[in-house]
Amino acid sequence: MHKGGAYDGPVPKLTRADAAQAVRNPLAFIAARWTPTQRTVQRATMSAVVMTVVIVMTGGAVRLTGSGLGCPTWPKCTDESLTATSAMGFHGAIEFGNRMLTYVLCAAVGWAIIAARSQKPWRRSLTRLGWTQFWVVMGNAVLGGIVVLVGLNPYTVAAHFILTTALLTIAVVMWQRSREGDGAPRPLVGTSIKQLVWVMAAASGALIAVGTVVTGAGPHAGDSSDVKRMPLDWETVAKAHAVLAWVVVTLAFALWFVLKAVDAPRGPLHRTRDLFLILLAQGVLGYVQYFTDLPEILVGLHMLGSALVWIGVLRVVLSLRERPEPAVDLPAQADPELSSV
After folding, report:
1. How many other CB atoms sit within 10 Å of the CB of residue 64?
2. Alpha-helix residue ranges (DSSP H) falling in the chain
3. Distance separating alpha carbons of residues 267 and 28, to the nearest angstrom
């Protein structure tokens, strides 16, 4: 049995005017005929987050298996073939598979855009976040092609990862916004706590940026041939990375202690606790991989940890305020005694 608002009549036939409208504005055409549930919109935005993390992992697998030039050109895999060939072996399959996953990411982002556009009422800000993701994916695809064409130059590889982190940022923000209303943000903590959080977020951003330098100077060049590395002492940069990690861990613990002391709402407190635990696990993993000469599997897990740390930081930042549904002005009710006169 359908509840209110469901359509029980026959499915309308697609007229020539409908087809023309679908061609001119397919999103509006779909939105006029489909209203997703709130849970569907949340799942759509979450799928974009998950696929971005998957791309981080598969990109790491490309580098750690030495498959960065498995497809030696772009946008085709070779000068003669769009796809990888059997003669290219394992490395070609890994690199081409990573390229194909970009289309899956585009599909996830597209689903998020369609779901946000079809939601009633239409939340324009949510749709814009979806389109921002789409254009970042397109830009990063072009940058990925440049990375291949310049022979895995470490500076372009670092920029490729930073842009993926920017994509992850937008995806997480869109997911969070899909779970909120469109009312004005209402702070849940004081100014001093917000300042501490922003310092921690800045330190976390620096930690990720220095991590790309560790990669660019380190031994995993992404290809079995001689690939140029950043002209820096790898161990010195790794130690600077570790110092920054301890700074972030200390800030996260200090934030949790302050939130606990002031009896802050559960949202910020729990998000900070989660981040602290992720940071501890990531720190242990980092030290283990350093002292075991960077085995590929641990480096890959450390890349996953980097994405999870950044998601944790973003969730802390976004937990500092709430966005309730905007108040709706209802018409004044008539006095029943006066109306009976």
Report:
1. 20
2. 16-24, 26-31, 38-64, 89-118, 124-149, 154-178, 191-217, 234-261, 266-291, 296-318, 336-339
3. 36
Asked, as a colleague might, if the bond just before 121 is cis with ω within 30 of 0, I would say yes
What is residue 92's predicted lDDT score, i.e. its pLDDT? Answer: 87
Please say whether the beta carbons of 170 and 311 come within 8 A: no
Q: Is 117 helix (H, G, I), strand (E, B) or coil?
A: helix
Residues in the chain, total? 341
Burial of 87 (0-12, 13-18, 19+ CB in 10 A): exposed
186: phi then psi, degrees, rounded to nearest 5: -115, 120
User: Residues 323, 183: contact at Cβ < 8 Å?
Assistant: yes
- Which residues are paired to 187 by β-bridges? 321
Virtual torsion, Cα 242, 244, 249, 250, nearest 10 deg: 120
Cα 302–chain centre separation: 17
Q: 82: how many CB neighbours lie within 10 A of its CB?
A: 10
Determine contact, residues 200/252, Cβ cutoff 8 Å: yes
DSSP assignment, residue 68? T
- What predicted TM-score, i.e. pTM, was given to this entire model? 0.87
SS3 label, residue 17: helix
Residues of the chain below pLDDT 50: 1-9, 11, 328-341
- Calculate the alpha carbon distances from 204 to 29, 207, 223, 277, 309 in Å: 42, 5, 29, 15, 8
pLDDT of residue 311: 97
Fill in the amino acid letter for 121: P
* Contacts of 215-218 spanning 24+ positions with Cβ under 8 A: 215/63, 215/154, 215/157, 215/158, 215/161, 216/154, 216/155, 216/157, 216/158, 217/154, 218/294
Under DSSP, the state recorded for 190 is -
Nearest of 26, 97, 34, 37 to residue 62 by alpha carbon? 97
Spatial distance between the Cα atoms of 220 and 64, rounded to a whole number of angstroms:
6
Residue 95 near residue 71, CB atoms below 8 Å: yes
